[in-house]
Design brief:
This protein starts with a helix and ends with a helix. By secondary structure, it is an alpha+beta fold. The longest helix has 16 residues, at 35-50. The chain is built from two helices and two strands. The protein has one domain. Strands 1-2 form a two-stranded antiparallel ribbon. This is Homoserine dehydrogenase family protein. Keywords: NADP, Oxidoreductase. Residues 10-47 form the Homoserine dehydrogenase catalytic domain. InterPro entries: Bifunc_Aspkin/hSer_DH (IPR011147), HDH_cat (IPR001342).
């Protein structure tokens, strides 16, 4: 769904809804990190989780 907002499929978009501004959320968007960086981050997270279970 987000791919169609600005026509950039690699963008990340987050909408934050709060009571004061229910009808107009705060939007944070930017370019994604890319495949290699995302894969490295996921692998690092998996290795960190492994340390929780000795």
């Amino acid at each position: 769904m987000w791919d169609f907002i600005n026509g950039y499929p690699s963008h990340n978009v987050v909408e934050i809804y709060i009571r004061c501004y229910e009808k107009q959320p705060s939007v944070i968007q930017g370019t994604g990190a890319g495949n290699d960086t995302t894969a490295a981050g996921v692998l690092a997270d998996i290795l960190d989780i492994q340390d929780l279970f000795p």
